[in-house]
Structures are given as C-alpha cells and as structure tokens.
Amino acid sequence: MRRLRVNETMRRLVRQTTVSVDNLVYPLFVRSGNRIKEPIESMADCFHFSSDLIAKEAQEVAKLGIPAVLLFGLPDKKDKTGSQAWAEDGAVQQAIAAIKKAVPQLLVITDLCLCAYTTTGHCGLIKNGKIDNDETIELLAKVALSHAQAGADIVAPSDMMDGRVKAIREALEKNDFPNVAIMSYAAKFASAFYGPFRDAAESAPDASTGLIDRKTYQMDPANAREALAEMALDIEEGADIIMVKPALPYLDIICRARQRFDCPIAAYNVSGEYMMIHASAAAGHIDKEDAMMCILTSIKRAGADIIITYFAKEAAKLLKK
After folding, report:
1. Is residue 6 part of a domain?
2. Could you give the number of structural domains in the chain?
3. Mean per-residue pLDDT for 97-114?
4. Distance separating alpha carbons of residues 233 and 157, to the nearest angstrom
5. Which of 114, 151, 227, 290 could bridge to 82 as Cys pair (CB 3.0-4.6 Å)?
6. Which of 78, 100, 166, 188 is catalytic?
7. 127 noted as active-site residue
8. pLDDT score of 180
9. What CATH number does the domain containing 172 carry?
10. What is the distance between the alpha carbons of residues 234 and 127, in angstroms, rounded to a whole number?
C-alpha cells in the first residue's frame, strides 16, 4: 500500500475524498443597528455585524469562492411570540437585501427559528409548560415568507417542530415563491456542542419556563433510526436539502442518510466543534489547519454534500493554495 502514498502527487492521484470550496457554507450573525462589527467572545474570529456592514463581509466570502452564507439574526427587542423574526425591517431581512444588492450571485440561506427572538429562548411558543407545535409552525411559515420576500434563496428551519416543512412549503407556493428552496435541519440532536453559539445568538433557553432544555423537541442523541425517519418525513413534506446537526458526533447518521436518500445532504460543523479545535490549537496540542481539514474531510467522507462551518473562510484560503 505504501507505493500509493510515496509523495503528495501520488496521494492526490488516488485520493478518494476531496473537500472543495464549493461544499462550504459560512454562517454569519446579523443584529439591529448600524456600523457594528463586534467580536463574539465565545467564538474565535466570528463577529456580530449590522446589516450595513454585513455586505462587505459577504463580498469577501464570495471572492473566496464560497457559494453561500447562512444568516442568523439577533433582534433589538424580544417578546413571547418572537415577532421581530418576521418584521419587514428586521436585521435578517435587511441583511438579505444588502447582500443581494452587493453580491447577487452569492446564495443567501436564512435560519428559521424563534429562539433568538423570544423572551423564553425556546424554538417554539410555550403554553402550559409545553411547546405548542402547531401554533409555532404557523409563525415559522410567516418568517419563511418574510425572508423570501426580502430575497433569500434558501430557508432553513432549525426548530425541529413537527410538520413545519410542509407549512413552509405551502406558504412559499401560495405566495408565488416556488423557487425558494428549503434546507431542513432534519436531524438536529440535543447537544452540548451548541454552547458557544447560544452565547453568540443570545438564545439560551430560560429555565423559569419549566423547560430547562430543548430535549422535548430536539432529537435524543441515542436514536439513529429516528433520525432517518425525521429525514424521510421532511423530504416527503417538501425539503430540498436535509441536514444533520451536529456533524462530528453523528458521522454515522450522515453515512446512513447518504446510503438511503438521493437528495443533497448538509452537515453543520457546529460552534462547540469549532471551538474545540481553536482551544486545542491555542494550548499547543494540535495544528489548527491540519485538524480543521481532518474534520472537514471526515464530514465529506461520511457523505455530506454541503458543510456549514465557521472554518469556511480559512478552509477556502487553504484550498486555493
């Protein structure tokens, strides 16, 4: 076997898995206000942008060849229903318009969830100490429509409410947005790896609601067959792309999904996974670039077509060398 590993040219010739810049999506955080570019304390090299500055960041992303960004919004005020999520002048809606004006060829994906917009920090409305699934999906459809009207190419529901893909698809079709795609967080597991993101998005759940975590609607990490059932349901309801989140602890789920489904599969290399690499590299234990590419290659090798990662810009620069 060593004959095919003798040098880099030979290794390139027989390489079975290749990560391309075309596979990458870069997440961005946008908040209300102007002239804002603030470092996110919990996430190295990541920032909160206002909509007037996010277009410049999007231009840099596009120059690197990265095909898409994924937008997360932070409102200037929250309420019980998360009404700022579908406001015409919301941070995400303004950011979509700004990016599309500056870089029309860049795909804009928008996260659909209420957690950053509600006073409870939960992904759905709470009634009598429980998530009201059906009322929540009506609001998510409103959010999706507002993003489509602002110019989003893909909407990405991340809430894990049952039936939300169907509700969103129907709302888009009814309002003449048949070409807006849906990338569903189809198998989103309850995970400790979301910690840095929840600080960044200011979306930690409020335990005083009686729901101390999101385990009643996000998936049990132990359940692989359930993940495949969730994906199948979302595809049936109209999802164009299905996602597994987080990526690293669930490479087996990505692999099983690739074997079963023919649609594009996305995987989210989440904030905790990202910061593990940064922390280890800062401590001198690992080489950050090598570890980054090892992780991204493993996600691609497992079967993901699309990798959402905070490493996207750094990886794109490395891949261009």
Report:
1. no
2. 1
3. 97
4. 14
5. 114
6. 188
7. no
8. 98
9. 3.20.20.70
10. 25
